[in-house]
Amino acid sequence: MRSFFPTRLAVVLVLPLASLVLAGCAVGPTYSEPAPATPVAWQAVRPHGGNAGAMRDWWRQFDDPTVAQLVTLADANSPSLAKAWAGIEKARATLTTARASGLPSLDGSASLSRARQQSMSGALATDTTRSAGLDAAWEVDLFSKVRRNAEAAEARADARVADWHDARVSLAAEVADTYVQYRACELLADAYEREQASTQQTERATAASVRAGFSAQSDAALARASLASAASTLISQRAQCDLLVKSLVDLTGRDEPALRTLLTVGGLPEPAGLEVQSVPANALRQRPDLASLERELAASSAEIGAAQADLYPSLSLSGSVSISATPGTSALTTWSLGPSLSIPLFDGGKRRAAVVTAQASYQMALASYRQGVRTAVKEVERSLVNLDSTARRVEEAERADQNYRHYFQATQVNWRAGLESLLTLEEARRSALSAEISLITLRRDRIEYWIALYKALGGGWQPGTPAAASGDTPTEASNKTNS
């Protein structure tokens, strides 16, 4: 009997189930990726006519290697990336569970017990009872409920991978943006320090003029006020630089002394150009956040089918075999096998409400996807407009800076010749410094708009790119993604 059961049970289970599975039918909508409602072409001016280089690892295209170093540090130590990776692992585990629901389950059990009994004659007898058994069960996926749940879980696993890439793109953009702000902050602090020194010279010259009776006391008060204002601006600017260092410490996980050593040398980085596709739909396919929204939409579609399948009967097959034996008796073998049919008759509308809920969730996911596409188009268009206008403003600011510098140099020559006063010289110096400050600010803004455009275009991400935990090699990441 021991050899009979496994063979007979396999035959009895496999043959009917094969025919039942083949006869089963899937319910629910057939999903197809929606075409994003995008304009035919970008309305804003594209940099370089859209004919510049690629965007892969865009932060390495800056002329400052510190940018790439900081992004690498952030990649290795970011809690946000670690959290996104944990989301991937959780989604993959859920996918494994969903797929396992459609497979047969087999459980084994064994027991050993000893008992002492006293007979009518008063004799004591000790018996040992041994037993073992197997239980098998299989829910037949007649209406593809299990398959639909697996499809939803797989789509959400893909969405979590896209979320990881989106977090990485956002992190790189934030690191690069903060670094650019810090470099500009240093340049501005230097300019404000020279402005304060010039204001101090003016205050001293004004005080001397007042003592000599050539100027009114009100002029001295105004000079002192200007000096105090310049000092306040410089203090505020230096504090802003310190705050940006703190932000970089938070983003990279590097201790502050080591980070400040890394930041000792460098100026404003200059990004290389990038390609902006002429067709918005092509560019938007490079955004991982839109890929995540689309995968969530696919998961919601599959869940409609799973909810609809719950309206129909479910069939499961179960079987068991057990063997028990005691000393002095022959082994006793028992087995059972049979189908179990569950037919929903009345549940107060619970199952149909679940279908309505799934359909509503799909509509919400579709609305989120459409809104995501609109937001993406807006971000790219805004970045293009800001980048173009700032680039033209930088050209004008460079001309202003050059001419104010020439004006200061000419005034300085006249001052040395005794043709201009010290007050006039310092006013010319501060005019030149003001033009320099404006130029630094615009150059900073221009680089920040480049970074915003990089991010709006997906940061170089391509569909199918594997995610990687911190410290993983690309090969290890690919193996994990394909497992």
Detailed description of the structure:
- The protein has 483 residues and is α+β, with helices and mostly antiparallel strands.
- The chain has a single domain (25-104, 146-313, 355-482), classed as Outer membrane efflux proteins (OEP) (Up-down Bundle).
- It is built from eleven helices and four strands.
- The protein has a four-stranded antiparallel β-sheet, with helices on one face.
- β1 and β2 (124-140) form a beta hairpin.
- The protein is elongated and about 135 Å long.
- Residues 1-23, 44-54 and 473-483 have low confidence and may be disordered.
Strand and helix map with partners:
Blueprint: H1 4-23, H2 65-77, H3 79-100, E1 105-118, E2 124-140, H4 145-211, H5 217-252, H6 256-262, H7 280-284, H8 288-309, E3 314-325, E4 332-342, H9 350-416, H10 422-456, H11 474-482
Antiparallel strand pairs: 1-2, 2-3, 3-4
Helix pairs in contact: 2-4, 3-4, 4-5, 4-8, 4-10, 8-9, 9-10
Features:
483 residues, alpha+beta, Outer membrane efflux proteins (OEP), elongated, disordered N terminus
CATH topology: Outer membrane efflux proteins (OEP)
Uncertain residue ranges? 1-23, 44-54, 473-483
List SSEs in N-to-C order.
Answer: HHHEEHHHHHEEHHH
Number of helices: 11
Strand order of the largest sheet: 1-2-3-4
Q: How many strand segments?
A: 4
Radius of gyration: 37 Å
Q: Give me the CATH superfamily.
A: Outer membrane efflux proteins (OEP)
Report the top-level CATH class.
Answer: Mainly Alpha
* Outline: elongated
Strand percent estimate:
5-15%
Total tally of structural domains? 1
**CATH architectural type:** Up-down Bundle
Distance between the ends: 41 Å
Average of the residue pLDDT scores: 82
Biggest β-sheet: count, sense, barrel?
Answer: 4 strands, antiparallel
Content-based structural category = alpha+beta
Portion in helices: 55-70%
